[in-house]
Amino acid sequence: MNKNNLIRFAQSLIFLPFMTGTMPLGDITNNPTAETFQNVFIQKQNIEASGILAFNQVFDQKANDLKVKKAEAIDNYFKSYNMPLSGMGMKMVEEALKNDLDWRLLPAIAVRESTGGKFECKKVKNNAFGWGSCKIGFDSNEEAIETVARNLGGNNPKTERYYADKDIKGILQAYNPPSIVARYAHQVISIMESIGDENPILGEEANS
Fold first, then answer.
1. Torsion-angle region of residue 116: left (phi > 0), alpha (psi -120 to 50) or beta?
2. pTM of the model
3. 185 and 151 fall within a common domain
4. How many helices (H) and strands (E) in the chain?
5. Using one digit for the tens of pLDDT, what is the confidence trace for 129-144?
6. Residue 96 maps to which CATH number?
7. What is the largest CA-CA distance in the chain?
8. Distance (Å, rounded) from C-alpha 191 to C-alpha 188?
9. 33, 59, 76, 192: most buried by Cβ count inside 10 Å?
10. pLDDT, tens only, 31-71
């Protein structure tokens, strides 16, 4: 059963209890044929539900494997240049996912702004992104990642007019306008490409 069929069947399960409870089957105790039909129907229902569960488990495992692969790519990039933000890969991936951002955007900005935390803002703490022109500090790197991701994703009402519904180039040009740094967007996008492909392929997919 393909994915679309499984989804359609899952949706149909919402109505099955009502149908089962109201369908006029006559006197089942005196009608073995009707009873057999009902048993077969229930068995089929259970098999289909098991198929949906198995599909969801495979889908969830694949999604988790992709998250791990992306996080490893970020951390490996940071490690290769001895950058302090190594270990923040999974947090960056998770916040990018929450805010519908390319998973490479946050680490690339951090590399461009502070060499991955080596030269983060000096007057405030835990700001490796240059956020707020280095006038805003955070209690942790995790908080900084959450804040920057939420804003770049257009999910902060105070800044959504700058970032909402924009592609990567548009987001970067709002983050650091060309009038300030002419090639900023190009530089960050180049770092993103160095970190990895937008849609990485898992090992078993590459071999299939």
1. left
2. 0.73
3. yes
4. 10, 0
5. 999 999 999 999 999 9
6. 1.10.530.10
7. 85
8. 5
9. 192
10. 566 667 677 777 766 776 666 766 576 668 999 999 999 99
Q: For the purposes of burial, counting CB atoms within 10 Å of the CB of 113, is it exposed (0-12), middle (13-18) or buried (19 or more)? A: buried
Whole-angstrom Cα distance, residue 137 to residue 156?
A: 17
E strand or H helix that includes residue 41: helix 32-80
Looking at the structure of the chain, the number of domains it has is: 2
Instruction: Quickly count: other Cβ atoms within 10 Å of residue 164's Cβ.
Output: 16
Domain that includes residue 40, residue range: 3-62
Residues 88 and 74 in one domain: yes
Distance CA(76)–CA(193), nearest Å, equals 14
* Other C-beta atoms lying within 10 Å of the C-beta of residue 3: 9
Residues contacting residue 48 through CB under 8 Å, at least 6 positions apart: 1, 9
Are 44 and 86 found together in one domain?
Answer: no
Q: Are 151 and 159 in contact (CB under 8 A)?
A: yes
**Do 57 and 83 share a domain, yes or no?**
no
Torsion sign over Cα 100, 143, 191, 175: positive
